[in-house]
Amino acid sequence: MHDATTKNWENCGLFCSPPVQLAYDSIDASSYGEDLPPLVILHGLFGSKTNWRTLGKHLHRETGRKIVTVDARNHGESEHSPEMNYFVQALDVSCLFQELELSKAVVMGHSMGGKTAMTLALSYPECVHSLIVVDMSPTKLTLDDDILQYLAAKRDMNLAFVNNKQDAERMLMNAVPNSFLRSFFLTNLVKSESGFKWRINLEGIESNISEVSGFPTQFPHQQFDGRTLFIGGGKSDYIQYKELPSIKNLFPRASIKFIPDSGHWPHAEKPMEFAQIVTDFLDNHLQD
């Protein structure tokens, strides 16, 4: 770890454990994007880097930038850990920057990944050129009851009776009636030599659910002065325009855009509209 990362890790005190190794996929910059800051994408709770594969390829074609999609700790192919607050997640990402020799990047995070991205910007601003937060707000400090229900449903599934994903889908149908969410959650069910298993660390996530639902109140830096865009789903209540004054206390250059007729996953529900907003934001940064 470089000096700034080491110092901030030590300053975390009881809040931080050592970083874990994060899995990632990357697409190298095109010739016309080599001089532009890369785009690093952080997924949400129960997600993985694969959720952003198609959109990442599209943004690469549109902007030429290097694209890096990352698995959070306890998710995807990244290492598991019993600790999962936002300071350690931001530390993980800052160490990945060192591994990839990234000086500064545009960081985009959805939901939990949005909170990690905000924490990164307020803890390691030297890593963040600009910030995109998708359907999340620093003022969102509660977790929907549905999330706890989904966790319990996954934990209580008897995987010994799962022979294929259709079996798993039937088992989840009552707890997760939304077919989109069922399919999303089942991306975490993988085949092993002994049968099916969850690749996410259910125990680690559940024991840290209060940390995941909250957001830190103190940071090494009081504000992030880079350009910041919040993208909200028009039908979601995770972020509201009336929160902009509170958001600007931390991110004074923040703006908000909403995508009509989309919920908490605007990038999946309205991918072309979402991609255009992100591309416009990235193109506007050419003047920075």
From TrEMBL:
Protein keywords: Hydrolase
Catalysed conversion reaction: a 1,2-diacyl-sn-glycerol + H2O = a 2-acylglycerol + a fatty acid + H(+); 1,2-didecanoylglycerol + H2O = decanoylglycerol + decanoate + H(+); 1-octadecanoyl-2-(4Z,7Z,10Z,13Z,16Z,19Z-docosahexaenoyl)-sn-glycerol + H2O = 2-(4Z,7Z,10Z,13Z,16Z,19Z-docosahexaenoyl)-glycerol + octadecanoate + H(+); 1-octadecanoyl-2-(5Z,8Z,11Z,14Z-eicosatetraenoyl)-sn-glycerol + H2O = 2-(5Z,8Z,11Z,14Z-eicosatetraenoyl)-glycerol + octadecanoate + H(+)
Limits of the AB hydrolase-1 domain: 37-271
GO molecular function: carboxylic ester hydrolase activity
Stretches of the chain forming a coiled coil according to its record: none
Presence of keyword Hydrolase: yes
GO cellular component: mitochondrion
EC class (word): hydrolase
EC number: 3.1.1.116
Family: Belongs to the AB hydrolase superfamily.
Protein name from the UniProt record: sn-1-specific diacylglycerol lipase ABHD11
Species assigned in the record: Acropora cervicornis
